[in-house]
Amino acid sequence: MAQLGRAPASGAGGRGFESRQPEITFLMALNIGDAAPRFRAAVVGGGYEDGREVSLEELRGKRVILYFYPKDDTPGCTVQACGLRDAWDEIKDRAILFGVSADVPKSHRKFIDKFHLPFPLLCDSEKKIVQDYGVWVEKHFMGKNYMGIERTTFVIGGDGRISAIFRKVKPEEHLDLLKDALAAKR
Fold this sequence. Notes:
The protein has helices at residues 75-86, 88-91, 105-115, 128-132, 171-183; strands at 40-44, 53-55, 64-68, 96-101, 121-123, 136-141, 144-149, 152-156, 162-166. By secondary structure, it is of the alpha+beta class.
């Protein structure tokens, strides 16, 4: 009886095949108490020189907020960003806040300038950070499926551990949730 096995890849002898399917990696969802995934990304605005890279490691010992949003200068993202801008005096001394999207630096600069945003935005055009944080997800709109960023916020303590997560947050509710998390002693 013949033994069944894997077909050899092309060029390995025989008439095998190579899969052209993309590799899919399934990550466990991040939870409160987990170590925050490290990142290094170009930053725009917020007192940083545009294009300078910032990493989570260099922020160790400080409370960090990463708020992931789908796209610069879209209605929901603008509501969320302007809410943070309007409450900046209440936030700025309690944590270092970064907005994160897959937009390029030029788009971030236009968004910051148009709405006078006082906080920095991280550029994740390669989508590494959004994948590491589990917010690059399949979305559904008007009968179509596509990949995009799920509006999610992570509060990271000075020890590098996640102290709060707001998934699928509504732009209008984001600020109140964030203020509550920052009021908590962590």
